[in-house]
Design brief:
about 425 residues, mainly alpha, 20 helices, globular
């Protein structure tokens, strides 16, 4: 029965990952927008099947152990649910869905769902294979279209014109976003390092091709994250001590939080007059240029946070709408402020740490950080090395993109799967760390 449970759960997780991966490609554009959102939402309920089944047959001692070791998660959701009653935002569908996705990431993708799974290698191989196939097609299109391989009026060119991103970034035309293409590929590379223990020629060819693709799409967030992971990999090879990579990843995580805190300091220092938020000194201009325009977005959102309370905004969309308050102070014109708000709706926080503070509030943000650190520290020693490098990749990426649970993408699902998988979860004697 345990094997059947394990196989069914793996199939469910594999389906969820495939659906969420395809959402990042232009194939999703062939579906109506609301249908796509509903599909992403309802597909997650599949994982409730093994979760509730295993919960139904749990023991009293097991429940006590799990609750005791997950008091921070309980406190986190107490705060988040409290925000629905005490927060300065309307409790709408966006706020409720945000909390649901947090429950999905922190609870449903956890102990009871993964109880009988020794590893998720087969699931991650599906993700790696999907990413590789899409990248090969991207490269083929990138070189084939200019050479006239496809007829100008043919079906392929017409499809690319209608659905693809070829006009914006021909090197990643089958993805909806070039940065996303780089992150998806970088995550696949670090997953491959964890999944494939034998380093044969095909593994190195795959890594070479994937890194070339990341270079081609100019996804600097993924490139920086992969370089940091490379440092961790070298340290892991030089040291025979298992805990060295845990220390490294923890330090990287702390450094990411400190950099976000430093960003707050710079913005606060240069925002004494909110009406002049868009006026930047030479240092700010350099930061804005180096971050390809992200600094100004961060400046808007950090100043918007000043106008929110302890409980956060409730959802990403609420935070984006609250930007209008800043634009009103800048332009003193409601029409122009509304136009700017609508224009900026295309941009999220571009920083997962900043986004979590904005949406969840300061106290919930601190709890979320502690939960992640606890997961890193309590990971099974046999899974620590390469799997923690996968987590490290996402910690760094979130300095540039908002990929934590408040905006659930395939990356955030994989992050939680990596941090939550344990060996022989069904043996409560092992140090199970997650609900």
């Amino acid at each position: 029965m345990k094997k059947v449970n394990s196989h069914i759960t793996k199939w469910i997780i594999g389906i969820i990952i495939c659906i969420y991966f395809l959402q990042t490609t232009v194939f999703a554009r062939m579906l109506e927008w609301n249908l796509r959102l509903e599909m992403l939402f309802y597909i997650t309920f599949l994982l409730w099947i093994p979760f509730l089944w295993n919960l139904l047959y749990t023991t009293k001692g097991e429940v006590k152990y799990i609750l005791k070791n997950n008091w921070m998660i309980i406190l986190y959701f107490t705060v988040r649910c409290g925000s629905l009653f005490f927060g300065d935002f309307s409790v709408d569908q966006n706020a409720l869905e945000t909390i649901y996705y947090e429950i999905f990431g922190l609870i449903i993708i956890g102990y009871y769902s993964l109880k009988y799974i020794d590893n998720l290698n087969s699931v991650f191989k599906v993700y790696i294979f999907l990413n590789l196939i899409i990248n090969i097609l991207n490269i083929f299109i990138f070189y084939a279209v200019p050479k006239g391989v496809f007829a100008p009026e043919g079906g392929v060119v017409l499809w690319l014109t209608k659905y693809s991103s070829y006009a914006s970034f021909p090197y990643a035309s089958l993805y909806t976003n070039s940065n996303g293409a780089g992150i998806l590929t970088g995550m696949a590379v670090v997953l491959a390092a964890a999944v494939f223990k034998k380093r044969k020629i095909f593994f190195w060819l795959y890594c070479t091709f994937s890194i070339y693709f990341m270079y081609l799409v100019h996804a600097r967030s993924a490139q920086v994250a992969l370089m940091v992971c490379g440092i961790g990999y070298v340290l892991m090879q030089l040291s025979k001590k298992k805990y060295i990579i845990k220390i490294f990843v923890t330090l990287v995580f702390v450094a990411c939080v400190c950099m976000t805190a430093g960003l707050y300091g710079v913005v606060y220092k240069n925002s004494t007059d909110i009406s002049k938020v868009e006026v930047m000194n030479p240092i700010e201009q350099e930061l804005n240029q180096r971050s390809t325009g992200r600094y100004l977005i961060w400046k808007y959102d950090i100043n918007t946070n000043k106008l929110t309370d302890f409980w956060g905004s409730g959802s990403v969309i609420n935070s984006q709408n609250k930007r209008k308050d800043i634009f009103m102070k800048i332009y003193k014109d409601p029409v122009r402020a509304e136009q700017q708000r609508r224009q900026m709706m295309a941009f999220d926080f571009h920083n997962g740490y900043l986004g979590t503070i904005s949406v969840c509030g300061v106290f919930a943000f601190i709890l979320f950080l502690l939960i992640l650190i606890k997961k890193v520290i309590q990971m099974d020693h046999e899974k620590t090395d390469y799997w923690l490098i996968c987590a490290c990749f996402m910690f760094v990426v979130n300095l540039f993109e908002c990929q934590f649970l408040i905006e659930t993408y395939v990356y955030s699902i994989i992050l939680m799967l990596v941090l939550n998988q344990q060996k022989n979860n069904y043996n409560i004697g092992n140090q199970v760390s997650d609900i």
